[in-house]
Amino acid sequence: MSTDDLPNGWSRIEDTDQQGGQYNPQQPIQYERDSIELHLQPATNAADTDQDVWQVNAIRETGDGPDVLREEIEGRDTAIGTAREFMETYNERHVEGDESVDGLISSF
Fold first, then answer.
1. Could you read off the pLDDT of 62-78 as tens digits, one per residue?
2. Is the CB of residue 84 less than 8 Å from the CB of residue 1?
3. Is pLDDT larger for residue 97 or for residue 5?
4. Three-state SS at 11
5. In 3D, which of 60, 49, 65, 71 has the Cα closest to residue 94?
C-alpha cells in the first residue's frame, strides 16, 4: 500500500534502521495520524520461523502502552488490510464523528 492509497490524514513512518534498502518481509510497518500510531509487527521475534503471523497495535501519545487491536493475523498483506480498516474507521468515527479514541480502540 503506497502513501497515496492511505486514508486521508494517514502517513507511513519510514524505518530509518532498515539496512541499505534491503527488503525484509518481516520488517515492522508503522503508520501515523494526529497523536496515534499503528504498528504492524510479526507476532514472533524468531528470525528463523516460517510463520507469517502478525499483530496490529495502536500507540497513543497519551496512552500507557500499546493497545493490541488484532492478533494472530495470517499474512503481512492481511495485517496491512486490518490497519487500513482501522484507519478508515478512525477517520469516520473519530475525526468525522465524535467517538473517543478509547471507545474506538476498545470496540475495534
1. 878 899 999 999 999 99
2. yes
3. 97
4. strand
5. 60
